Each structure stands twice: as structure tokens, then as C-alpha cells.
Amino acid sequence: MKIFTPLSLDGFELCHPENQEDFETIIELINGEPRRMNWLPLKVKILRDDEGINLASSDAPWLGSHALIFRPSAIKALTILLEEYGEVLDLCCSDGVVSIYNPTRVLDALDEEASSVLRFNDGRIMRIVRYVLRPEVVNSVHIFKIPNLRNSPTFVSEKFVALWESANLKGLTFKLVWEGNL
Fold this sequence. Notes:
The chain is built from 4 helices and 14 strands. It has one domain (about 1-180). Helix content is about 20%, strand content about 30%. The N and C termini lie close together (about 10 Å). The strands form 5 sheets. A 4-stranded antiparallel sheet has the order 12-13-1-14.
């Protein structure tokens, strides 16, 4: 069993909120709690240029691993997993149709004692250097977040990665963060 976190590929489009304060809003809202019933689409823009360099079109314009942005092409290819493990929420974007993904599975999967973590003075986890996950918790779960971090990345399984790759989607790569056996 392999668990990954998505990363942006260099040279591909980015997605940013139009309002700078909405970076924090996204952290607060894309936290595993269902939002569909009261969701008000945030205004975002697609960045196709970075300091004079043209960026390639992406099926997942990058905002961060905590809040994945998907175009309809990615949603269609990944829908079987996206619907089971979270919700696709519309965004308001004059540059094209994009949605944000809110994983609604938050699993107490991190073995804090076996992992390598950096902590704030008050004991909260600042950063996880090396993940050790509980295999019995993540077994057969394909998309999730963990409660140990305020801004948890989205974790995905090898099935998610295989669906992404078989659909020839562009813009993301996947970093292996944990491999284990049940």
C-alpha cells in the first residue's frame, strides 16, 4: 500500500483567490467538514504567466496540496474516487471552469511517535518530516486528510495516482510519503 501527496509540476498554471484573504478562508473551509449545503463559490483566477514565463495548461491548476483545484477533465477521470471521499465545490472563475475539492475523510492515521515531526512550543505539530501511517486506518481509503495538522495536505492512494496517469492528465506529480503493509 502506497500513500502520496500531490505536488505541482513546474511550468503549469496556478490558481489563486482574487481576494488575498481567501487563502486563509480556503484553509478554514477545506478541512474535511462537508460544505456542499452552504457553499458560496469563492472568486479565483488562473495564473497563466509567472514572472514573464508562460505556464502550460493544467488539469489541476495549483493552489496547494491542502486544496486541490480541478478542471472538468480531472473531475471526469477521477469522479469515482472524488465522489466517495469528498465533495467537488464550484468556484467562480472568469478564466475557465474550475472546482475545489474538499476531502471529507479525516483519518486519525498518523503514528505520531513513529513519525518524525517538528513541533511548535505549545506542542502542536508544525511540520511532518517523515510520515508513518497506521496501515489498518488507511487500508482501502483513497483520499483523506489527517487531523494532526491545521492545514493537512490531501493524501491519495496509488489507485488515485493510477487513474490520474491513465487519463493522461497534466499538471500534478505525486510524492510518495508512506509505504506499508497491512
